[in-house]
Amino acid sequence: MNRLEEISASVVAHRSELADAEFRAAWRAWLEEHCDVQMLRPARRLAGAPLKAWLRKLNVHGWRAPGWPREHGGMGLSFAKQLIYREELERLGVTRWLDLGETLLGPMLMRHGTQEQKATLLPRILDCSDFWCQGYSEPNAGSDLASLRTTAVRDGDDFIVNGQKIWTTFVQDATHIFTLVRTGRYERRQQGISFLLIDIETPGITRRGIRNIAGDSEFGEVFFDDVRVPSSQLLGTLDEGWTIAKSLLEFERTSIGSPFLADLALKMLNSLAERCGIADDPVFAARMKGFASELDVARLLYADLCGRFVAGEKLDSEFSMMKLVSTELFQRTAEYAVEVLTPYQAGHHDQPTRVLFEELNHLYLISRPVTIFGGTSEVQRDIISRSLLAV
Ligand SMILES: Cc1cc2nc3c(=O)[nH]c(=O)nc-3n(C[C@H](O)[C@H](O)[C@H](O)COP(=O)(O)OP(=O)(O)OC[C@H]3O[C@@H](n4cnc5c(N)ncnc54)[C@H](O)[C@@H]3O)c2cc1C
């Protein structure tokens, strides 16, 4: 560890030991100082170079990886402080970001990685030398992930990988991909799958972007054509990657289950309704009360389940419930907002109202896929009903 890293580590240690109110004040002050106007667009999500620059800035200033333990270079925050960390971002309206290395792969490396994998890969996630994307879905293996067909065949000290992944978020920005591949024979389809870590610049890999409904190319396809991957890049045990795959999905549903976007949609709806003069309409006001009470339920559920998850409780269908409640509420709120407000859009030409409409329209577009990624709503209902009916 060099001198700068030592100083940064001691500041992080200090922050985790602050009283909650002091921690909140320190984080708030830092955000207010470092977020320029481009960083205050909560309906947007950072991507590309600005995303990496922001993550590096958080790292240098000791605000990176709030949930990671201190021994791995994270902030080691208690659950209460992690909620405060999030609350302050939401209060200020900071542009959202996603780093799958931090939120999904990091915890799996800590649980299943070799000493060498942890020592090399975790610091490279923190300083953004490596930026990871998730290669799970394939053209015929989405909800039914176990039917994946990308293969990795052992050849000396390497695996030779062939196949295709799709809907890979941030594939154009990524330096690496963590992926599920078929490595062995199986009786049950969940067997014979391994979890492989692959440098995306390896010869034989081709990436192709897919443009989404909002006009962004945030996801894409990845083709593997005789790609040679060292066997040291295997995470966990050969043929038993399904266990890692499943526990990673729990982390994914925890972050997707946040009611933040539903809250944002409701705030925008409120604010625009006032500007358009419909806030006092009794029918509108009744709908708003309905959304507000559903949001309260989503918030309570989220705080309760995340707290139990962090405390080590074994949860399963509860994640599905949380994902379902938050994402469907977000989608319905955004849909209603566009339905009632669009007729007023043309009549408002002042700059702040125009910007708000622009942001709302964007929010509506990004609300469409939330009931698909991380497991579709139908699949979540399946999981919940199986658990309730014990079938
Ligand atoms: C914005 C976005 C980002 C994504 N990012 C990534 C990523 O980074 N990495 C990655 O690996 N994947 C990613 N995905 C893929 C995502 O995980 C899949 O789209 C999702 O799992 C659904 O799979 P599918 O698209 O193959 O649909 P299918 O599984 O083919 O489903 C089609 C329809 O059938 C329904 N259905 C399927 N099975 C059942 C069932 N058993 N019971 C009832 N209904 C069912 C589904 O609900 C859906 O309506 C992303 C998707 C989106 C939209």
Quickly list its features.
alpha+beta; Butyryl-Coa Dehydrogenase, subunit A, domain 1; Butyryl-CoA Dehydrogenase, subunit A, domain 3; 3 domains; 14% strand; binds flavin-adenine dinucleotide
- The ordered string of helix (H) and strand (E) elements is HHHHHHEEEEEEEEHHHHHH
The average pLDDT value, as a whole number, equals 93
Rg calculated over all Cα atoms:
22 Å
**Percentage beta strand:** 5-15%
User: Could you please say which CATH topology of the largest domain applies here?
Assistant: Butyryl-CoA Dehydrogenase, subunit A, domain 3
Describe the sheet with the most strands: 4 strands, mixed
Instruction: Give, in spatial order, the strands making up the sheet with the most strands.
Output: 1-4-5-8
Share in helix: 40-55%
Name the CATH class of the largest domain. Mainly Alpha
User: What compounds sit in this structure?
Assistant: flavin-adenine dinucleotide
Tell me the number of strands.
8
Corresponding CATH superfamily of the largest domain: Butyryl-CoA Dehydrogenase, subunit A, domain 3
Which shape, going by the Cα principal axes?
globular
Class inferred from helices and paired strands: alpha+beta
Unreliable stretches covering 5 or more consecutive residues: none
Number of domains: 3
Oligomer category: single chain
- Quickly count the helices: 12
Distance, first to last CA: 52 Å
CATH architecture group name of the largest domain: Up-down Bundle
Domain Acyl-CoA oxidase/dehydrogenase middle: 133-227
Domain Acyl-CoA dehydrogenase/oxidase C-terminal: 239-389
Cofactor: FAD
Pfam family, one: Acyl-CoA_dh_1
